[in-house]
C-alpha cells in the first residue's frame, strides 16, 4: 500500500511541475503580446497641448459666442486635424469661460439661445436639454451634468484652449 | 463545485473518453529522449506545432495594430515597430517564427522520411503532412507582402510573374491573386491579407486536426 | 473514482446505448518500457519546449525583425529577393534549362516533380523495409534533392551582400526635417551633395541619409573633402567658407529633425 501512496504523490508532483512548466511557457509567450496590447492604456495621452483658437481676449464679450478651431491629432500612425468648437464669454468677474458645446445627455451640439422659448440658456435640439449660462444643466431636462469646460490660458492677449474637462452633476 | 459542473456536462456529452484518450495513452520508450538521447529527433513535430502556436498568438495580437491598406500598412507596421512597447518583440516573434517553423517542418519531414515512417498504414498522414508543408509555404509567401515595404512588394511582384507563366490558367491565376491584371497594389494587399489570415489558417487547422487524429489512431511508428 | 457515466440515448436512436470502452494504444510489441503521456512524457516534452522557447525569444530580442522603406513601385533600381526558403526556387530560374523557352521546366517541371514525388513518396517507395539501407533509391533521391536545395540556396544567398542591402533600404522616418533653402549652406549642398544625398538629405541608392548622423560640423567638413567609406574624396569643390556653411547647414537640418 505504501507503494501505491508513493505513486500518487509522484503523479501529483509531476502534475504540479507540468503546470509550472506550462505556466512558464505561456508566460514567456504571452508577456510581450499582452504588454503590446495594453500599451494604449499605459501610454500618456499626447493630446492636451493648449491650442491657439484664433480669438483675442478683447473680442470676447459677456454674450457667449461660438469659436471654431482645429487641433492636430495624432492617432497612432494616422495624423488628422479634427475641428473643435466652444462657446466663449466673460462672466461677471471678467473671467473667460469656454464651454464645450457637446450636450452631456447624448452628445448632440448645443447652441446659445438655440430656442426662442428659452432665452439666456444653452439649448440642445435633440431632446430639449437646457443649460444655464455657466453651463449648469437645468433640472428637469434630460442632461444630468453641466457642460464641460475647456482648459484655458491667455497668452499675449490671445485665447488658448486645451481639452474639455467634465464637471460633476448639479 | 467544479466537479459537479464537470459531472453535469459529462453525463450529457460523455467527454471523459475524449481527454482520457489524450491523457492516458502510453508513450513507448524509443521516442523518449529521456531514455535514448537520439530520440530527440521525435521532438521536431511537437516543436513545429509549438511554433505554429506562437505564430497564431503573435499574429492575433499583431492584427490589433496592422491595417491591410497600401496607404497605412507600412505606417502601421512602422508605428508598431518604433512606438508601441514590445511591438518590435511581437513582430519579431512572428517574423522569426515564420523562418523557424520552416526549419522545424523540414527537420520533421526528414525524420519521418529517413525512418520510413510513412509506410503502410501511415501513407495518408504523410500526404496530409506534405499538404501542411505547402500551406505553410503559402502562409510564408502571402505574409511576406503584408508589411508593404520594398522587399515585400518586389518579391511579390516576381512571385505573381511566375504564377502568370503557368500554362492555360496563368493569367487568371495571377488576376485571382493580385486582384488586378496589371497592378500590384491595394487589391493585392487585401487579398493576400485575407488569404494569410483567414483562408490558409482555416485549411491549416483542418489539416492539423486530421494529422493529430491520425497519429492517435495509428500510433507512433515502431523503432527501426 | 469512476468518471463518465456513459450516455443514455432515447429508444429510437440509432446510436448504441452501450458504452464503448476505451482501449489505450498498446505498444507492447515495441522494445522497452512505456510511460504515461500525461504527465510523465508531456513534462519532458514541455521542458524541451521551454528550452526552445528561451532560445527563440533570445533570437527575437537579439535580432529585431527587419523593415525596409515603404513600398515604392517606381523604384526601378530595387533588386527583388524572396524570403530565404524560396531562394532555391528563385535561383533555379537563373539556369538556362529552366528559363527562357524552358521556363515551364523551371516553374512547373522540376518543382512539380520534386514536390509531387514528396507528396506521393509512400506509393513510390512502397517496399516493406523501413531502414534507409533497404530503400536505397528513395533515400538517394531525397539526399540528391536535399543537396540541390542547399546548393541552390547557398548559391543564391552568397551572391547577395546582405549587410549593404539592409543598410541601403533602411526605412526613412517621415521627414520632420525642415530644409531651410535660404540657408547659405543650402546652395553649396545643392551644388555638391544633392545628386547623391537627395533633396531632403534622405539619401539614395548611391549614398546614405544625412539625417540622424552624429558628426560635428568639423567632421562633416572633413568628410565632404576627404570622403568616407564608399564616398570618394574630392567631391566637394569650393572655398573654405562654403565648406563651413555646408557643414553648418547639415548640422542645422539634423538639429531640426530631432
From TrEMBL, chain A:
Keywords: 2Fe-2S, Disulfide bond, Electron transport, Iron, Iron-sulfur, Membrane, Metal-binding, Oxidoreductase, Transmembrane, Transmembrane helix, Transport. It comes from Compostibacillus humi. GO terms for molecular function: 2 iron, 2 sulfur cluster binding; metal ion binding; monooxygenase activity; oxidoreductase activity, acting on paired donors, with incorporation or reduction of molecular oxygen. Component of the menaquinol:cytochrome c reductase complex. The Rieske protein is a high potential 2Fe-2S protein. Coiled coil: none annotated. CDD domains: Rieske. PANTHER family: CYTOCHROME B-C1 COMPLEX SUBUNIT RIESKE, MITOCHONDRIAL (PTHR10134). Residues 88-161 form the Rieske domain. Pfam families: Rieske. The main subunits of the menaquinol:cytochrome c complex are a Rieske-type iron-sulfur protein (QcrA), a cytochrome b (QcrB) and a cytochrome c (QcrC). InterPro entries: Rieske_2Fe-2S, Rieske_2Fe-2S_sf, Rieske_Fe-S_prot, TAT_signal. This is Menaquinol:cytochrome c reductase iron-sulfur subunit. The chain crosses the membrane at residues 12-31. Belongs to the Rieske iron-sulfur protein family.
UniProtKB/TrEMBL annotation, chain B:
GO terms for molecular function: electron transfer activity; metal ion binding; oxidoreductase activity. Keywords: Cell membrane, Electron transport, Heme, Iron, Membrane, Metal-binding, Transmembrane, Transmembrane helix, Transport. Its cofactor is heme c; heme b. Its main location: membrane. It is found in: Cell membrane. PROSITE patterns: CYTB_NTER. GO terms for biological process: respiratory electron transport chain. Pfam families: Cytochrome_B. GO terms for cellular component: plasma membrane. Residues 5-224 form the Cytochrome b/b6 N-terminal region profile domain. The chain crosses the membrane at residues 39-67, 96-114, 126-146, 193-215. InterPro entries: Cyt_b/b6_N, Cytb/b6-like_sf, Di-haem_cyt_TM. It is a multi-pass membrane protein. The keyword Zinc does not apply. The main subunits of the menaquinol:cytochrome c complex are a Rieske-type iron-sulfur protein (QcrA), a cytochrome b (QcrB) and a cytochrome c (QcrC). Component of the menaquinol:cytochrome c reductase complex. This is Menaquinol:cytochrome c reductase cytochrome b subunit. It comes from Compostibacillus humi.
TrEMBL record, chain C:
The keyword RNA-binding does not apply. The chain crosses the membrane at residues 46-63, 102-124, 136-154. PROSITE patterns: CYTB_CTER, CYTC. Residues 180-254 form the Cytochrome c domain. It comes from the Bacteria. Residues 27-154 form the Cytochrome b/b6 C-terminal region profile domain. InterPro entries: Cyt_b/b6_C, Cyt_b/b6_C_sf, Cyt_c-like_dom, Cyt_c-like_dom_sf, Cytb/b6-like_sf, Cytochrome_c550/c551-like. GO terms for cellular component: membrane. It is a multi-pass membrane protein. It is found in: Membrane. It holds the Pfam family Cytochrome_CBB3. GO terms for molecular function: electron transfer activity; heme binding; metal ion binding; oxidoreductase activity. Keywords: Electron transport, Heme, Iron, Membrane, Metal-binding, Transmembrane, Transmembrane helix, Transport. The keyword Heme applies. Signal peptide: none annotated. This is Menaquinol-cytochrome c reductase cytochrome b/c subunit. It comes from Compostibacillus humi. The gene is qcrC.
Amino acid at each position: 500500500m505504501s507503494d501505491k501512496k508513493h505513486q500518487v504523490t509522484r503523479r501529483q508532483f509531476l502534475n504540479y511541475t507540468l503546470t509550472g512548466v506550462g505556466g512558464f511557457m505561456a508566460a514567456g509567450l504571452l508577456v510581450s503580446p499582452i504588454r503590446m496590447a495594453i500599451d494604449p492604456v499605459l501610454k500618456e495621452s499626447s493630446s492636451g497641448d493648449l491650442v491657439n483658437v484664433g480669438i483675442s481676449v478683447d473680442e470676447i464679450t459677456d454674450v457667449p459666442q461660438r469659436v471654431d478651431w482645429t487641433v492636430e491629432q495624432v492617432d497612432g500612425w494616422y495624423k488628422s486635424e479634427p475641428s473643435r468648437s466652444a462657446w466663449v464669454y466673460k462672466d461677471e468677474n471678467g473671467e473667460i469661460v469656454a464651454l464645450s458645446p457637446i450636450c452631456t445627455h447624448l452628445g448632440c451640439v448645443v447652441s446659445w439661445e438655440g430656442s426662442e422659448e428659452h432665452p439666456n440658456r444653452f439649448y440642445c435640439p435633440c431632446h430639449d436639454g437646457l443649460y444655464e449660462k455657466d453651463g449648469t444643466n437645468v433640472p428637469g431636462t434630460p442632461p444630468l451634468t453641466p457642460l464641460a469646460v475647456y482648459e484655458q490660458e491667455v497668452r499675449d492677449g490671445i485665447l488658448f484652449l486645451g481639452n474639455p474637462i467634465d464637471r460633476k452633476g448639479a | 463545485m467544479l466537479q459537479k459542473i464537470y459531472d453535469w456536462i459529462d453525463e450529457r456529452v460523455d467527454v471523459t473518453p475524449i481527454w482520457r484518450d489524450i491523457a492516458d495513452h502510453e508513450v513507448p520508450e524509443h521516442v523518449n529522449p529521456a531514455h535514448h538521447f537520439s530520440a530527440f529527433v521525435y521532438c521536431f513535430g511537437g516543436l513545429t506545432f509549438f511554433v505554429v502556436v506562437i505564430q497564431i498568438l503573435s499574429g492575433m495580437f499583431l492584427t490589433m495594430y496592422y491595417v491591410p491598406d497600401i496607404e497605412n500598412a507600412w505606417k502601421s507596421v512602422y508605428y508598431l515597430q518604433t512606438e508601441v512597447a514590445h511591438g518590435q518583440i511581437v513582430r519579431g516573434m512572428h517574423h522569426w517564427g515564420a523562418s523557424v517553423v520552416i526549419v522545424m517542418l523540414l527537420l520533421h519531414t526528414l525524420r519521418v522520411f529517413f525512418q520510413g515512417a510513412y509506410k503502410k498504414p501511415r501513407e495518408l498522414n504523410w500526404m496530409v503532412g506534405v499538404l501542411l508543408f505547402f500551406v505553410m509555404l503559402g502562409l510564408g509567401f502571402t505574409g511576406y507582402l503584408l508589411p508593404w515595404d520594398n522587399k515585400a512588394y518586389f518579391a511579390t511582384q516576381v512571385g505573381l510573374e511566375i504564377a502568370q507563366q503557368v500554362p492555360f490558367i496563368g493569367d487568371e491565376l495571377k488576376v485571382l491573386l493580385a486582384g488586378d491584371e496589371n497592378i500590384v497594389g491595394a487589391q493585392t494587399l487585401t487579398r493576400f491579407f485575407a488569404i494569410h489570415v483567414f483562408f490558409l489558417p482555416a485549411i491549416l487547422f483542418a489539416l492539423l486536426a486530421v494529422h493529430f487524429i491520425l497519429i492517435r489512431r495509428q500510433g507512433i511508428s515502431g523503432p527501426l | 473514482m469512476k468518471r463518465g457515466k456513459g450516455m443514455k440515448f432515447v429508444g429510437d436512436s440509432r446510436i448504441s446505448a452501450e458504452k464503448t470502452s476505451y482501449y489505450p494504444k498498446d505498444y507492447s510489441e515495441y522494445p522497452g518500457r512505456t510511460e504515461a503521456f500525461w504527465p510523465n512524457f508531456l513534462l519532458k516534452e514541455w521542458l524541451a519546449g521551454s528550452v526552445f522557447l528561451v532560445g527563440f525569444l533570445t533570437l527575437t530580442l537579439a535580432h529585431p525583425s527587419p523593415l525596409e522603406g515603404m513600398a515604392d513601385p517606381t523604384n526601378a533600381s530595387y533588386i527583388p529577393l524572396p524570403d530565404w526558403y524560396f531562394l532555391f526556387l528563385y535561383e533555379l530560374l537563373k539556369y538556362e534549362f529552366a528559363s527562357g523557352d524552358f521556363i515551364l521546366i523551371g516553374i512547373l517541371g522540376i518543382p512539380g516533380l520534386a514536390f509531387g514525388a514528396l507528396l506521393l513518396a509512400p506509393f513510390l517507395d512502397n517496399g516493406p523495409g523501413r531502414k534507409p539501407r533497404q530503400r536505397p533509391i528513395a533515400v538517394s533521391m531525397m539526399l540528391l534533392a536535399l543537396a540541390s536545395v542547399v546548393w541552390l540556396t547557398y548559391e543564391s544567398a552568397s551572391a547577395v551582400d546582405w549587410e549593404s542591402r539592409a543598410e541601403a533600404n533602411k526605412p526613412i522616418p517621415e521627414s520632420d526635417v525642415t530644409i531651410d533653402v535660404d540657408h547659405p549652406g543650402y546652395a553649396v549642398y545643392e551644388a555638391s551633395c544633392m545628386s547623391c544625398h537627395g533633396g531632403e538629405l534622405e539619401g539614395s541608392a548611391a549614398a546614405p541619409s544625412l539625417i540622424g548622423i552624429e558628426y560635428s560640423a568639423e567632421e562633416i567638413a572633413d568628410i565632404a573633402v576627404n570622403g568616407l567609406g564608399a564616398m570618394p574624396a574630392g567631391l566637394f569643390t569650393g572655398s573654405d567658407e562654403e565648406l563651413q556653411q555646408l557643414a553648418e547647414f547639415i548640422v542645422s537640418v539634423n538639429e531640426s529633425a530631432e
